[in-house]
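We modelled the chain as a single entity of 352 amino acids. Its sequence is:
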Amino acid sequence: MSSDSEEVSVRLRQKIEASGPISVAEYMRVANTAYYGRADPLGVEGDFITAPEISQMFGEMVGIWLSDLWLRHRPARCHYVELGPGRGTLAADALRTMQRFGWTPSVHFVENSPALRAKQLQAVPEAMFHDTLESLPTDAPLFLVANEFFDALPVRQMVSTQAGWRERVVVWNKEAGFAAMPGATATDDLIPEQFRSAAMGSIYEICPDASSIMQQLSARLAKQGGVMLIIDYGYTQPALGNTLQAVQGHTYADPFPNPGQVDLTAHVDFSELSKCAKKYGLLVAGPKDQGAWLSGLGIDQRAQHLVASNPGRAAEIAAAHNRLVAPDAMGALFKVLAAYAQGWPQPQGFGL
């Protein structure tokens, strides 16, 4: 265990010893804040690879999608905004594509990790950074992108017990270390009616941070105009299940032994994000499977063109294309959701 991980573990342990068990959400928040602040977790030498790192085709399709909306609406001014932009790879590929259409918006990144900010500046030197959503510009429409952003936000977990639904909490002891168990707080009022009589041990998750952020962004788009593109893994209707997972070195890991050393994520509830957007009067397209969305935008033809231009990389390009669109890879697990202001064009890629 590294000294960083030991520090996070000590802080969490001391908090539990002083005040009692903490929620899974609080554990996840503390652990992920430390994890993303310590180093660049992406790439072959890191813990996971996101779609933009797999192939330039992903960012290019996002750039084409955004450019199409810009060309059809033609706002006098606008801003490109990305939440949690990784290494800046998606933005760099998307912005390069936008330039082909004569579009060069100002660029704004919402990012707190110093390590990732340094990588993002290398990829997109003109980017302006924001610690929070509040400092984003208010003077023009926003073209917002959130790729694998919402899955890293902390989730609250409710578990069905003999005594009713209880919040799942994290405890600590010398023998077992950190572990999750049902807490004392009753949470029956947070459970949708259709799940209240679920079998004991069933878990229902909510993500208050995701709802809050989606509402803030939706209010901005309703007032300023613009569009929002969300790409993540998740589910399209409310569901039961424990989706909390950890990844380390490209392999699934236990979420609890080494807080701050593993990437903690949970599946995104796209129905909740859609509901938040509609609450502020936005129009919604999707969610749609990532593979179908990318193919609808022309990624298959782009892959063929890249192979023709780089025959020596044909196998590599084909493998990347398959990973992004195949149903047994990222194609069906990842979903795409768009929310856009009233009066803006209907986005492409979401047709039947």
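As a brief sanity check on the tokenised model: The domain at 37-153+207-239+249-340 is CATH 3.40.50.12710 (Rossmann fold). The longest strand covers residues 164-173.
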